[in-house]
Input
Amino acid sequence: MENQVSRRILGFFLAFIVMAVILVIRLVYLVQGSGLAQAGQAQSTQTLRVAANRGMIYDRKLRPLVNQQRLFRAAVMPVEQAVQAAVRQLPDRSASIVDLARERKPFLLEFPTPYVYAKGINVFEVYKRYTDQPFAPHIIGYTDGAGVHGVSGIERAYDDFLTHREAVIEVSYQADVTGSAVDGVSPTVNKSRYDVREGVVLTLDSDIQQIIREACEEAIYHKNSEELAEDPAQRKAMEYGGALVMEVDTGNLLGYASYPEFSQNDVAGSLEAEGSPFINRCFSAYNVGSPFKLTVAAAALENGISRYHTYTCKGYEDIEGQIFYCNNLAGHGNINMSEAVQESCNTYFIHLMKLLGPDNVMRMVQSMGFGSGDTLAEGMTSVSGTLPEISQLHMMPAEAANLSFGQGKLLATPLQLAKMVALIANGGNSVTPRLVEGFTDETGTRIASYEPKYASNPVISQRTAATLQEFMIGVVEEGSGIYAKPEAGGAGGKTGSAQTGIYVISDDESTEDEEIVHAWFTGFFPARSPKYAIVVFAEEGESGAKAAAPVFKLIADGLAELEGIEPEKEEGKEYPVELGENKEPPTN
Output
């Protein structure tokens, strides 16, 4: 009896164990099955990223500098009606569309119109980040191939701020186990934050930017036209060069151009282009020439040398056996400082260097910002250029003579020359170049601004600044810069034709090798109460008076129209102001 009871208890116990094991197995199966189901669900969804958007980049008046154009991008299901509609829109791509459809997976196309109505097609209006016509490409920069991260310019400097990972348009489709889209199931569209308004506000002004571009492109047009530009120097103008406009009181960079440009929409193609289009020539260093004479004049005035100080120019100066020629080989005769600036007399400034000594000149040069780079945004810095060592200037008088009229080892950027002009035009205060003004919030409202930085102490006195302004106005009115005279408002400036020491070797033994000479014009506008510093630079332009000054005039004319400045008629005075005219002011 006891044995029977024991066997029954053991049977119940074993049955209980079996049932428990079955229950555990079932629970494990259910848990695993749930996980597999979730995995299967994830694998059955295929997502197309139609577009990704970044934060905005604005000009100083909150006008967009990116996302100005739209295009139409379609998400296409590989079903018959959708494929037929796509082929009708893009007949030239019919073969490739059919090939895409054979893969049985959704794909993207760009359509010329949003008005496509067919089962399996969703058309979206999306932003084209950059315009077909480049607009400040060196400043704005460009993004990687996916349009997600910045590679250069402002796009790179503020990449973290401009990157909005949720600012996308995505279309998700149900797919079978092979990954093919399931027909008859509507896709899910995610477009929650695509229209981003947060962004970076630059100091650039779109109107001024356009004025500079049009002036430079007109010069390039004349360069390439035998009929309109008979002067060889004119034909070289601006193919390789740049121009910029700076606000004299703040250092704000209002506009620039650097040629040749690159295409932000075809970066790979631009890599193969001639002329190094990715270099921003406004931030690069070059031989300067005569505009540098203004710093020597400033040093002389600040050290007590009168503006009426007279020197006799005989056409050359002998410095320890090395002959330095003036641009006027016959000599200017008796000439004072104002006349020396107007006529760009080299030997007068060699004479000033002797009187001042290298130390006084170099102090002025460095206080004006030469020899130091400028940071306009994080990772966006202009080069520092080069200055000779003061010890070399003392030991080598010929090197000091070269520096006095902007030659020798001196290299400077158009941006540094704009700082020099701004300092003279605003009464003597140095300015810090500025490119970023602030930011906007998600509504596009300005929320923060950076204040411009002024020097705590003036670099030159107001009296010296006013005297230099007068000299520069004389250059435009009566001197080497007559081609730069605008139609209205007047201007002050200085021409420059900078020898580089680099020669183009002639194939003809009877022809001498030709030295490469860069052309400059630096100045301010308008003449009274200056507001803008303008610098124009043309590689291999030969003559600042002919290649760069006319571009300055076109920019100043555009600014005059923008400011509403009316022309003033002057009786008895006529100046050659059109590109291609062949009157002969001094060339440097």
Observations:
- The CA atoms of residues 10 and 16 lie 10 Å apart.
